[in-house]
Structure formats: C-alpha cells, structure tokens
Amino acid sequence: MNTFKLTPTITEYPTCSSFFQNFDFDKDDLLFISNTIYSKYFKGHTRDATILFRGDYGSGEPTDEMVEQIYQEIKDLPYKRVIAIGGGTILDTAKLFCLKTFSPVLDLFDHKIQPIKDKEFIAIPTTCGTGSEVTNISILELISRQTKLGLAHDALYPDATILIPELLEELPFSVFATSSIDALIHALESYLSPKATDFSRLYSVEATKLILSGYMQIKKVGPGTRIPLLHSFLIASTYAGIAFGNAGTGAVHAMSYPFGANYHVPHGEANYIMFSEVFKKYQELSPDGDIAKLNEIIADTIDCSPSEVYSELDDLLSLLIEKKPLCEYGVSQSDLLSFTENVMTKQNRLMANCYVPLRDDMIYSIYDNLFNTLYRNH
C-alpha cells in the first residue's frame, strides 16, 4: 500500500514586488539567502529579520561542516520562523534550522537524534530543479564520509512554498541546465518507483512533458528562449518535487551521490551522467513494465520512436551540458569499487526505489561502462 501526501501551501507571485505587497518580515524571522538575490531583490524589504548570507559559509553544495558552522552562530537566537530563498543548498540546509535539535548533524543523519520541528518554515526556490520546496528531504555532503546522504522525515516539510518566477531570471544557463535536468530525473525516477501511485505519476508525467517541451523549444530557437519559459520550468520542478517527495528517486541519484561528493560535481550534472545507463539497464531487465509506458510518453514529447528515447534524450540534453566520461572528472578505475560499495551500503533509502532491484555487479558495470565506453568514444 502506497500513499500520496502534499503538505505545503503553495502560493504563486509573478514578481517580487507583488510578493512584498502580501508578505511581512519581522524580528522573529531568520532569513537564509544568497548575497546576489538579496542585493537585487530583497534589500530594503526584510525589516528586522536576521539575515544569513549563503556566501559567508563557503561555496558548493551543502555539507555537514557548513551546518555545524551555522549552528554555532544561530543556536542562541530566538527566531520563530525560517525563510529560505535559494536553490537546493539553501533550502536543504534551512530545513534543519527549523528543528529543535540539529547538532551534531551526523547524529541527526544517523537517526540518533529524533527530528522535532519547533519553527515555521517558508521555502522560496530560485532554481528550477531541486524540488526541495515541497519535500521532506534534506541532503548533505558528509565530508568525513566522502558521500552524500539524505534525511527524510515529515518534520522537514515546509509549511509554505512561494513560487516567484522572476527570481529565476538571473540564473546562468549552466545552472538552469543542471537544475532543470535534475528536475527531469526526479520526474522520471519517481514515475518508475515501486512507491509511485496514480496521483504521484500525474505529477511525474506533467513535469516530464513541461521540461522536455521546453528543451525542444531551446533546441529550436536557442538558449535565450528559456526566459519566457521560466514559469513553466519552475512549475515543472515543483511538480517533480511533489512526485519524488512521495515516490522517491532510485539508482540514478544513489549512484550520483558518491561520484558527485568525491569530485564536487553539480548534483544535476552528476545525475545526468548516470541517467541513461541506469535506465538502459532497467529496460534490459524489465522492458514490458512501466518503463514501456514512460518511454511512450517521452517519445511523444520529443518526437521519436520509443526504441530511440535514450539516445535521443542524450542528444537533447547534450545541448545543455556536455556529457563526459567519468575519467575526465578525475575518477580512477579503483574508485568504481568504492562507489559501488557506497551505493550498496549507504544509499539503501534510494535503492529501495529502483524500478527493478540492481545487484552490486550491475551497479559496477554501469560505472565501468560510463568510465570506459565513453572514454573510447570521446
């Protein structure tokens, strides 16, 4: 028996000015935001809120060390509401600030600390990929363990989600590409998850169609055409977040985590590297199940035959990000064994959502193919 849950209240505003007309910051607010977004859109509108700037705590994706550093600064602050404005790093990190106890963060992720929410959380995404604005999941890079790990608990659900497409207009094309590809893979993996329901698949399918249709427009007209499509991409990202928040993601995400964490590859790019080889393995193992229905949906959207969907998707996505072999990121052959071990021992939450079960030799062969085959073809 699988269930479907949608927790946050979702509100849309076309611009920041319309948002400010309907929202009040106050002294009990803790605002986590990037310097750039604050300076361009929010400066002068946050009243007496306490502001944490993402850039003051290093760069890259969220880590346990960053969370501990912020904890030391805010542990004695009497804030009652957390407002996170940003991409996955900001949203995933800020979810933890709403908990009664979130340090030591490793104990939290090891389930030695029970997550208890005692502050309100408002999520405002500035990218079109994370889906974190509607999920109960926080993902951190655990530096001492050289991997990423997700914590899923209902205490991490936002209380309110606010969508403002204007905030995406400053996204560099590379960030737009990696984030929207991440959303696409959220949609595709959640569709195939054993935990998927008729309700979650509605969101998976609509997200897939919106994103791929947008990519086809970019292919036809060029990168600049994404700007009028940002509202659609933002909605698609949230749809995909709802889908995978209920059904989960699988082997693509599980395999991307040790690779991305060890070689500091953006999350969406790491997922993109893994995607087609994982889905080809699914296709090989169970070609007549739900993957056949999904392939039909993809084929209809990008105008190809179902037998060509993965090669056509690789070609389409390569217009956004160059697909490189693992060796070009510095990965060594010996890394593939440690990656495989990590997937099979540390990513059980994700591997439980695979379309069909994958053994360790299958995981290794996918990594090996990405390392060797692409290298020979490069």
UniProtKB/TrEMBL annotation:
**Domain Alcohol dehydrogenase iron-type/glycerol dehydrogenase GldA positions:** 59-165
Positions of the Fe-containing alcohol dehydrogenase-like C-terminal domain:
177-369
- Alphabetized InterPro entries for the sequence: ADH_Fe/GldA (IPR001670), ADH_Fe_C (IPR056798), Alcohol_dehydrogenase_Fe (IPR039697)
List the CDD domains: 4HBD_NAD (cd14860)
Q: Which UniProt keywords apply?
A: Oxidoreductase
Q: Name one GO molecular function term.
A: alcohol dehydrogenase (NAD+) activity
Q: What protein am I looking at?
A: 4-hydroxybutyrate dehydrogenase
Q: What is the lineage of its organism?
A: Bacteria, Bacillati, Bacillota, Clostridia, Lachnospirales
